[in-house]
Amino acid sequence: MNEVDNILWQVRYLQNKNWLRARELLQSSVNEYPNNSKLQLSLAELYQSKKLFRKAIVEYQKLLPIFDRKDLINFRIGNCFLALNEYRLALNYYNILPENSPELLYNKAFVLSKLNRVDEAIDCLEKLFKNNYPMNSELPHIFLAELLYTRREFTKGIHYLELAEKSYGKKGSIYYLKGLIYMNLKNWLKAYLDFESADKLNVNTPHFLKNYGLVCSKIGKNTKAVDLLLRSIKLAPTDPGAYIEIIKLYLDQNRIMEAYSIAQHAKRNIPYSITLSMLYDQILMKIGKDFAFNKDI
Fold first, then answer.
1. Cα distance between residue 46 and residue 12, in whole Å
2. Contact, 151 vs 184, CB < 8 A?
3. 133-175 pLDDT tens trace
4. How far, in Å, CA of 83 to CA of 78, rounded?
5. What is the DSSP string of 89-104?
6. What does pTM read for this prediction?
7. Nearest to 140 by CA among 116, 114, 105, 112
8. Mean pLDDT over residues 74-88, rounded?
9. DSSP 84
10. Number of alpha carbons in the 13 Å side-chain half-sphere of residue 155
11. How far apart are the C-alpha atoms of 24 and 6, rounded to whole Å?
C-alpha cells in the first residue's frame, strides 16, 4: 500500500468517528501532495457529507484542472448549489453536462421547477421515461404528475401515477395525488376511493384531511366529512381552509349553533380572513332570524 492509499484508508476509518481529525489529515496531505486528485476529491467529499457545501464547492473547483472526470465534478458542484437553494447556480453547472443520467435529469427538473420553468422541468422528467432509464423509486413519477397537475394535464398525470403504482405498489402519495386530480375533474366518487386508499396508508396531513372531508361532503358522507375536517383543524389550527369548509357544511345542514361554535373557535386562532368574516356575519344573520321567528311564535 502506497502512502496516499494509506492516508485514504485512515480517512475512511476516521470520518465517522472523528471527522475533524480526518479533515486535518486530508488538509495536510493535500498540501504535501498538491497534484493528487484522490486526496483532493476525498476532502471535497468529506465536506459534502458533513453538509459543509460551500467548503465542498471550493475543494471541487480546485479539482477541475487536475481531474479527468470533469462531468462528475461539475455535477457534484451543481448538487452542492442545489443543497444551498442557489438554483440558478446549480442550473448553470447542470447545463454544462450531457443529459445522460437519471439523477441529473431529476435534479435539473427540480431546479427548473423552483425557477418556475415548469414546462422545461416536465421535458426533463419525460426524458427519463422516453429513454427508459432505470429508476429506484416512484419519486420521478410523482414529481412529473405533480408538475402536470399544475398545468392541468390531468390525463397524463394519471398515466404516470398508474405507472408508479404498477412498478412500486400501493403508496399513499400516489393515491393522494390521484384523488386530487379526480377532485379537480369533479369525479367525486373516484376522488373518494383514492383518498380512502391514501387514508388507509396513513396519509395524515391537514390539507389531505381537508380535501378528503370536502369530497366526502360531495357524496353525502357528511358525518365522515365533519370528522375529517375537525381532524384537519386539530393538526393546523391557524389554517382557515378546514374552518371554512366545515362552517359551510354546517350551514347547508342548518346546524347553525355548531357553525357558530366553529366560527368562534376560528376567530380565536386566525387573526383575519375575509371568507371567515363573511361566514360569521351569515351565521349571525341566521341566528337573528331564528330568534325573531321564535319570538313571534
1. 10
2. no
3. 888 899 999 999 999 999 999 999 999 999 999 999 999 999 9
4. 9
5. HHHHHHHHS-S--HHH
6. 0.85
7. 105
8. 97
9. T
10. 0
11. 15
Contact 17, 46 (CB under 8 A): no
- Alpha helices (H) in the chain, listed in sequence order: 3-14, 19-32, 37-49, 53-63, 70-83, 87-96, 102-114, 118-130, 139-150, 154-168, 172-184, 188-200, 206-218, 222-235, 240-252, 256-269, 274-296
User: Which residue type, as a one-letter code, is found at position 283?
Assistant: I
Q: pLDDT tens for residues 183-226? A: 999 999 999 999 999 999 999 999 999 999 999 999 999 999 99
Q: Any idea what DSSP says for residue 68?
A: S
* Residue pair 179/198 in contact by the 8 Å Cβ criterion: yes
Instruction: Inform me whether the pLDDT recorded for 33 exceeds 80.
Output: no
Q: Which three cell numbers stand for residue 207?
A: 390539507
Residues 163 and 148: their CA atoms lie apart, in Å, by: 15
Query: Amino acid letter at 15?
Result: Q
Residues 6+ apart with CB under 8 A from 275: 240, 244
